[in-house]
């Protein structure tokens, strides 16, 4: 009995060794692509597609998770094979979904997150491959920023106290004030920037308060124009394929099997699969074309590289004004770069789309009494201040207010 059990163990060992020795690429299940849009405008429909190569294996299941919570599984042996689970932000149309490809006719702010697709093969192999993608949900402001607290006339020395408020957006808008077309420096003591308020859920309203005493320098021909600008930066990061480099010819040089590469991700060029300590790695990372240009980062074994390893390269400029950013990586290989005889290189591209919306210019006038008298002193200014508030609103102000109203109502 004892030797029988021992023989079994030996046979198992031999079998295990054979399985390990077989070149993996020829038989194993592979993830080809996890396709999830990086940026989605709230309400848009999306496809979440997971494609794989079974090779010689049989499919057991395909599972989709958002932030580690399963919301869909496809098991050919089940009836029906495709099933969904309730999860915030997940809206699946099963009639249009098939196998690993899911159709969501709509999205909301809760749809944002990390999506993972996991494909498993049947017995006896039970292999699982997985890939992840991040999806961000953006919401553009529905209207231009508004200016609150305005008066038609200001006396010299009087406090101008205006609040700029953006329409709800995601992410929060960054606001700027301009006086007579000149931007007020972001750190100026004229500004007070409260934290953006989350309302409604998932959207943010930004405010920026501008306070300063009106002086003669602010008025040109008796008029001052103030304007507010809302800037929304919609950034997303794409990863390149990960390149695995070994320090020995015996170890297999393969790219990371589990995590697939991004279709529009940056590309790595010029490398070898094998380096010895003392050799120089000299590679380039090239982003796909965009406007504004992408920002690139290099990582060795998931750690961002030191700046002295980086070689800035001239970008590739296309006729339409779009650019492909190029960033070189050059360093001498040290043994510390290898973890278990492997060194992994990766590059990421961050693309940002900057949206700007500017308020209607608001024109205010100097108080009538002070127009001809350009050297009013502080005391004098205080005394005319109360009178200035009674001045009738100028035609120009009425016109710009009407224009704002018309624009608002048409939005
Ligand atoms: C995802 O799959 C569906 C159906 O299989 C297809 O119509 C759609 O074009 C695919 N989308 C992407 C981005 O691959
Ligand atoms: C500006 O106006 C707001 C109300 O609109 C008020 O709370 C604030 O105290 C004012 N600031 C100054 C400096 O007058
Ligand atoms: C990287 O790009 C530069 C030009 O931008 C080129 O001169 C260099 O040869 C490239 N290096 C590799 C390894 O491709
Ligand atoms: C590869 O690197 C590992 C870890 O630094 C080291 O133990 C191993 O001896 C190296 N192999 C060769 C062939 O240089």
TrEMBL record:
SMART domains: IG. SUPFAM superfamilies: Immunoglobulin. Coiled coil: none annotated. InterPro entries: Ig-like_dom, Ig-like_dom_sf, Ig-like_fold, Ig_sub. Keywords: Signal. The keyword Metal-binding does not apply. Residues 23-130, 141-244, 266-358 form the Ig-like domain. Residues 1-28 form the signal peptide. PANTHER family: BEAT PROTEIN (PTHR21261), BEATEN PATH IIIA, ISOFORM D-RELATED (PTHR21261:SF15). This is Ig-like domain-containing protein. The gene is AVEN_119844_1.
């Amino acid at each position: 009995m004892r030797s029988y059990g021992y023989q079994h163990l030996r046979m198992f060992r031999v079998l295990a060794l054979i399985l390990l020795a077989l070149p993996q690429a020829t038989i194993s299940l592979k993830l080809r692509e996890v396709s999830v849009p990086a940026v989605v405008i709230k309400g848009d429909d999306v496809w979440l597609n997971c494609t794989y190569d079974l090779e010689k294996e049989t499919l057991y299941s395909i599972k989709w998770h958002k932030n580690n919570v399963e919301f869909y599984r496809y098991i050919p042996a089940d009836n029906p094979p495709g099933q969904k689970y309730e999860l915030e932000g997940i809206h699946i149309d099963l009639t249009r979904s098939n196998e690993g490809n899911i159709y969501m006719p709509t999205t909301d702010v809760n749809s944002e997150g990390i999506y993972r697709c996991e494909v498993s093969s049947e017995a006896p192999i039970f292999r699982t491959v997985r890939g992840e993608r991040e999806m961000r949900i953006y919401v553009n402001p529905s209207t231009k920023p508004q200016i609150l607290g305005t008066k038609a006339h200001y006396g010299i020395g009087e406090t101008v106290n205006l609040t700029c408020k953006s329409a709800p957006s995601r992410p929060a808008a960054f606001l700027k004030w301009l006086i007579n077309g000149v931007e007020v420096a972001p750190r100026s003591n004229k500004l007070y920037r409260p934290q953006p308020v989350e309302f409604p859920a998932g959207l943010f309203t930004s405010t920026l308060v501008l306070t300063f005493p009106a002086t003669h320098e602010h008025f040109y021909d008796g008029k001052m124009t103030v304007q507010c600008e809302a800037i929304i930066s919609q950034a997303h990061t794409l990863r390149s394929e990960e390149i695995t480099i070994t320090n020995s010819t015996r170890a297999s040089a393969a790219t990371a099997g589990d995590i697939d590469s991004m279709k529009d991700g940056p590309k790595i060029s010029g490398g070898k699969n094998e380096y010895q300590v003392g050799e120089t790695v000299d590679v380039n990372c090239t982003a796909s074309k965009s406007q504004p240009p992408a920002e690139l980062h290099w990582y060795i074994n998931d750690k961002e590289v030191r700046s002295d390893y980086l070689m800035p390269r001239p970008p590739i400029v296309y006729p339409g004004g779009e650019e492909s950013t190029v960033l070189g990586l050059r360093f001498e290989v040290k043994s510390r770069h290898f973890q278990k005889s492997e060194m992994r290189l990766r590059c990421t591209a961050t693309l940002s789309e900057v949206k700007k919306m500017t308020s209607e210019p608001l024109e205010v006038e100097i108080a009538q009494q002070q127009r001809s008298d350009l050297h009013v002193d502080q005391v004098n200014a205080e005394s005319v201040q109360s009178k200035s508030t009674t001045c009738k609103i100028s035609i120009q102000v009425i016109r710009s207010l009407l224009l704002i109203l018309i624009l608002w109502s048409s939005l």
